[in-house]
Amino acid sequence: GNQVVALSIERLGRASDNWRSWPAEWQPLFGASDLLLDLTPQEAAALKERLIETTEEFRAHRTDRPAPEGTRTVAVQFQTFLHEEPPR
């Protein structure tokens, strides 16, 4: 729970601070978004599943052979949770 959140925040913060020093071809990769969607529980479950399936497609094709030249480890983060307004 909280340890995963802290690690995600740390990774994103480090990338936000350092992306301009990445090799030029990797700099456009940096991106972060924060979307609020109005979903039913079923839609939220489907979205979560599709995100997992998409990332698994990229992971699966790397397990049976060495990584190609130029491969780097890329952090992919996504969270799904009910949005709560901050207390006033």
Quick summary:
This protein has about 90 residues and is mostly helical. The chain has helices at about 1-20, 40-60.
Strand content: under 5%
Question: Into which percent range does the helicity of residues fall?
Answer: 40-55%
Number of DSSP strands?
Answer: 0
- Could you say which overall geometry the principal axes of the C-alpha atoms support? globular
Low-confidence runs? none
CA(first)-CA(last) distance: 25 Å
Mean pLDDT: 90
**Element string (H = helix, E = strand):** HH
- Which sheet architecture does the biggest sheet show? none
SSE-based structural type: mainly alpha
Gyration radius, in Å: 16 Å
Q: Please tally the helical runs, counting DSSP H or I stretches of 4 or more residues.
A: 2
Give structural attributes.
42% helix; 88 residues; single chain
Question: Can you describe what's shown?
Answer:
- The longest helix is centred in the middle third of the chain and has 20 residues.
- This protein is an all-alpha fold.
- 42% of the residues lie in helices and 0% in strands.
Task: Describe the secondary-structure layout.
Blueprint: H1 2-18, H2 41-60
